[in-house]
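Entry 14. Ran structure prediction on the chain below.
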Amino acid sequence: MSAHTHDDIDWADRLAQLRMADSLDAGALAPVARRLLGRVPGRPTLLDVGCGAGGMSVLFARELARGDGGTVVLLDATPALLAEARRAVTEAAGGNVEVVGVHGDLADPRLAERVPAADLVWASGVVHHVGDQQAALRALAGLLRPGGVLAIGEGGLEMRCLPWDVGVGRPGLEQRLLAARAEWFAEMRAGLPGSVAMPYGWPRALREAGLEDVESFGALIDHPMPGSDLLREYVVHRVGWLAESAGDRLDADDRATVAALTEPDGPDFLGRRDDLFLFGAKAIHSGRRP
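Output, structure tokens:
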């Protein structure tokens, strides 16, 4: 299977950025893993749908290893990401945690036949890449054992990382990058096969999928200035990625500014700044199958 999934994004090409994001998010998301596992019985089977580089399942595996153990099933459509996730999660898991990798996609109509029934299904940033999001939630709910929990990471507050004025080009670059990204997202959603509107929020969507005990909460990502070497490297990747996805939605001046900020040998390279940060929030929504 190609590294390009049904949304036409080359996720393998983003592996380095995914790894960095996983590291930066780990402190905020470890309590999320603990909270979600607290909703399911001992030695659960956990399914991470669209596991990416495995960052969240590493946190799940560590939490399971501190308890009675369990099984972590990793599912991704990109072989390079699945291999990296399996390596990272196996390294983090103790002897009482089994790790299984499955090459597959949420859009597969036979997915339920390829993965074991789960006590906890986790899907972060995945459902919005499927044309019919409500149908995708119903499919995810169908992977649960009775009493099992579906948790999705969708929405929240967009990450910010740059000062208003970076000293190159017009002030407000990051806001324009995020606005262009929002335009790209709307076009991406409209172009997905079978794309349909879902004109209501995720908690209602979980209830429409037949789930009960629905709740939502947030995880704050907060890395203040001056930031670590990892943060600076991540910001360089992120700004370049935002500009790449924006394409012609950015004007020529902003594209030139991004080129200057991401050029390692240039005088304006972001990687040498001491005023970068990372601030935003992840939104988590969950519900239980009756």
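The chain has a mean pLDDT of 94. Will compare against last week's run tomorrow.
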